Amino acid sequence: MTSEQALSVARRYHRGWTSKNYKQASELLAPTLEVEVPINEYPTAESFVQALRNFGDLVTDVELLSEMSSGNEAMLLYDMQVQRLGSMRVVEHFTVADGKVTRLRQIHDTAAIRPTAAA
To answer: Minimal CB count within 10 Å: which of 8, 41, 67, 88?
Structure first.
């Protein structure tokens, strides 16, 4: 896997969910997907896709700020506007194998999300 291939998978996944094409995004996730996020746990790819769909429906705007890749890893940095939460900056780190995301690590400020996660 080249770094450009890894970045291509990350870009397609990002375009999929940010355009609310969750089918496209989910097809790029490996069945054995490992997810690391600051809030919540997703033991299966299916549980993550359901959460992605629920959260993605609240997103009103996304601006990709930076992207980079090395080997089978890629990173995307973006700002997004989310209904009821406001503005959020997110970085996603992808590990890719055989054209699928096998590991997704996401970092963002959880201050806006904490009150809704507890509800």
So the answer is: 41
